[in-house]
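TASK: fixed-backbone design
INPUT:
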């Protein structure tokens, strides 16, 4: 593919994304963008200093599909560039209970096998129970994953959205609870999108970022 992936700022100098996005070289990130074809005020392109893929990432099953990118310099905060909030593990679990709704943003393809979007789009999706998630696919669903989406598959994340955020609103604050990981087709009937359950990796994230 074009090697385009999403990511989420979690501090002034760290971005969280999907490990499977890191198979090729990753040299920079763009922060505060909306329209890919036009430079906007507040848009920043920053070199990546180092990439840390989770040590348990499994390239076949996409288990532990999470990576951290350290930026060469801090982001200048502004209306379009601010770090997302990480919940504690307990809140993270609560926010991903069945029937809770999250938002996914990205520039991914707007239809299966289609071209990626010029504008940043966002979609609201319900979290699906672990049982329904497992029943919907032949692939392995581990405890480090969760599913979200609709069975009639009207909307979904797609190619190019990988690594991007799944955020849930709790008392007026958006918390980062998932990372777009994989799916079978896009908005395919009977299939859900699969996300990395970020709550399982909070210890790794906080210890890495604080080094």
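OUTPUT:
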């Amino acid at each position: 593919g074009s090697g385009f992936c999403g990511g989420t700022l979690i501090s002034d100098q760290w971005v969280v994304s999907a490990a499977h996005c890191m198979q090729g070289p990753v040299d920079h990130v763009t922060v505060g963008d909306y329209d890919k074809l036009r430079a906007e005020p507040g848009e920043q392109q920053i070199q990546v200093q180092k990439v840390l893929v989770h040590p348990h990432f499994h390239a076949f099953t996409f288990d532990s599909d999470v990576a951290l990118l350290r930026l060469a310099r801090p982001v200048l905060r502004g209306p379009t560039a601010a770090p997302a909030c990480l919940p504690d593990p307990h809140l993270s679990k609560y926010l991903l209970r069945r029937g809770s709704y999250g938002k996914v943003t990205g520039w991914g393809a707007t239809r299966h096998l289609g071209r990626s979007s010029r504008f940043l789009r966002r979609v609201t999706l319900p979290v699906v129970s672990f049982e329904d998630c497992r029943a919907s696919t032949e692939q392995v669903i581990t405890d480090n994953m969760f599913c979200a989406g609709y069975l009639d598959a009207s909307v979904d994340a797609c190619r190019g959205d990988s690594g991007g955020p799944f955020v849930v609103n709790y008392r007026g604050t958006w918390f980062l609870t998932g990372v777009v990981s994989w799916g079978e087709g896009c908005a395919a009937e009977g299939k859900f999108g699969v996300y990395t359950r970020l709550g399982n990796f909070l210890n790794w994230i906080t210890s890495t970022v604080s080094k």
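COMMENT: The two ends are 34 Å apart (CA to CA).
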